[in-house]
Amino acid sequence: MDFELTTEQKDIKEAANAFAKGEFTRELALKHEEEHSFPRELWKKACELGFLGLHFPDEFGGQGLGVFENVLVVEEFCRRDSGLGTAIALADFASEIVMRHGTKEQKEKYLPAVAGGKMISAGAFTEPNHGSDITRMDTRAEKKGGQWLLNGTKTFITNGGIADFFIVLCQMDQEVKPAYRG
Fold first, then answer.
1. Confidence (pTM)
2. Which family does it belong to (predicted)?
3. What local confidence, expressed as pLDDT, does residue 130 receive?
4. Cα 48 from chain centroid?
5. For residue 97, how many other CB atoms are within 10 A of its CB?
6. For the chain, what are the domain ranges?
7. Who's near 120: CB < 8 A, 6+ residues apart?
């Protein structure tokens, strides 16, 4: 078994490293750290260069590469500055759910926009009483009059203050019991 990076993977790694070295300045990192702000312009540049959503299928704005290639980019970004690298890498956090489980219409609407630097996704998973135990969601979703009514509380919403769309984990069937308690 060969554990060496392919030529394409080495190229991706080098490009991500060069981008981070050229764009992730100490001043920029300190500014966003002190202001608790998102580096939107840096994120847009990273998207324009194809660093986000590169594991999305071509038809949805990605490059059809694997998660490993995505990890190579995140690793190089975080090698330069973990705060900036993580902020940029998590901008497509919840869109992974859309990619794997969304309808064709949802994929067409959200994935190209995320990969293209036009939308940021948020994931509302954590609840005050159960943390991130997805088998014990208190938040409920009920369809009423053709629309979904959500009722519950979420905390620690990744990208909550900057997102254009949210993935909210909810319990739809009130009778379902958790498969296990651990």
1. 0.87
2. Belongs to the acyl-CoA dehydrogenase family.
3. 87
4. 16
5. 16
6. 7-91, 123-168
7. 38, 43, 91, 92, 114, 159, 162, 163, 164
133-182 pLDDT, tens digit each: 888 889 999 999 999 999 999 999 989 999 999 999 998 887 777 666 55
- 3-class SS string, the chain: CCCCCCHHHHHHHHHHHHHHHHHCCHHHHHHHHHHCCCCHHHHHHHHHCCCCCCCCCHHHCCCCCCHHHHHHHHHHHHHHCHHHHHHHHHHHCCHHHHHHHCCHHHHHHHHHHHHCCCCCEEEECCECCCECCHHHCCCEEEEECCEEEEECCCCCCECCCCCCEEEECCECCCCCCCCCCC
Angle (nearest 5°) at CA 35 between 34 and 40: 120
155: left (phi over 0), alpha (psi -120 to 50) or beta: beta
**How, if at all, do strands 165-168 and 121-124 pair?**
parallel
Residue 77, pLDDT above cutoff 80: yes
Say if CB 87 and CB 46 are below 8 A apart: no
Whole-angstrom distance, CA of residue 180 vs CA of residue 160: 30
Structural domain 7-91, CATH architecture: Orthogonal Bundle (1.10)
